Amino acid sequence: MPAPGRTTTAEIVAAGRRIVASRGVEALTMQAVADQVGVRAPSLYKRVRSRDELLKLVVEAAIDELEARLRSAAGLIESDPRAAIADLARELRAFAHDDPSGFRMIFGSVPAEARPDIAVLARSAAPLIEATTRLVGADEALDAARTVTAWANGFLAMELTGGFQLGGDVDRAFEWGLARVIAAVSAEQKPAG
């Protein structure tokens, strides 16, 4: 019997992402990845300690891709933070449509052992937090970023699952909601309370 081939962590993660994209997170197993990269399953343990670590690496790879896309869309942060926030939300939407499984892994629930490192999450949130800092100041930047993200996540989760059943133009609804969320987080008056 020929010796099994060698593989890299990057190849393992790429195979994991393909499996999740085509068959869902439940199908992500060490054996399924081994089959994709052409090695025996025990060989994977030289690079990845467990399925949870594999899932964590797959989620982090999706976050890294989203981060790169957000950074490329963040050109107006200094000159027009409102426009930058809109561009970031639009890029998030494009990512969700291009990689629905990646979007669901990032914004969905994964086991505690497979959650991405906080540094990875912070890096990916940096463009939005930078834009909201310029818009509302450092004290409220995280609150504003969370509000924008929560609205976008809810809208996109419904859109991806076919939740908008009443007709109408979903693109227009996204832009309408986005404009109002940005206006709300950038309002100069603080609510009473």
UniProtKB/TrEMBL annotation:
Ranges of residues in domain HTH tetR-type: 6-66
SUPFAM superfamilies, per the entry: Homeodomain-like, Tetracyclin repressor-like, C-terminal domain
A Pfam family assignment: TetR_N
DNA-binding region of this protein: 29-48
Keywords on record: DNA-binding, Transcription, Transcription regulation
Source superkingdom: Bacteria
Protein's UniProt name: TetR/AcrR family transcriptional regulator
Organism name: Gryllotalpicola koreensis
